[in-house]
Amino acid sequence: MLRVTALAMVVGLLASAVWAGETPTDKKANSPEALKAEIEALIPAKHVWRAIHWKTCPLEALKASREQNKPVITWVFLGVPTDERC
Fold first, then answer.
1. Which of 29, 48, 72, 78 could serve as 35's disulfide partner, Cβ 3.0–4.6 Å?
2. How many domains does one find in the chain?
3. In b/e form, how buried is each residue of 16-43, taking b as 16+ CB within 10 angstroms?
4. Domain residues for 66?
5. Model's pTM, two decimal places?
C-alpha cells in the first residue's frame, strides 16, 4: 500500500510539472535579433575599474605609483574573492 501511494505521488508530481507548462530553460529565441539581444545581455558591463592594471606585488605597485606620481590604493580581503561575500 505504501509503494502504491508513493508511486501515485511521484506520478502526480511529474504530471503537475508537465501541466505547468514550459520551463525557463525551454525558451528559445524566435528570431536572430532576439538571440543577439540574449547574447549581449550575457556580456559583462564595461566598468572603469576593469581597465586598471592591478598589481599583486606591493613593491611593484609602490614603484609604479612613484613613477606616475599617483597614490597606491590597497584592497585587502579574507578568503576567496569569488565566494559572493562582502
1. 29
2. 1
3. eeeeeeeeeeeeeeeeeeeeeeeeeeee
4. 47-81
5. 0.36
65: exposed, middle or buried (Cβ count in 10 Å: 0-12, 13-18, 19+)? middle
- Say which residues have a Cβ less than 8 Å from residue 85's Cβ, sequence separation at least 6: 79
Cell (9 digits) for 53: 592594471
pLDDT digits (tens, 9 = 90+) for 3-52: 778 877 777 777 776 666 655 554 566 888 888 988 888 888 888 877 87
- Judged by average pLDDT, the poorest of 9-13, 32-36, 61-65, 72-76 is 9-13
* Position 20 in a domain: no
Confidence band for 66, pLDDT divided at 50, 70 and 90: very high
14 falls within a domain? no
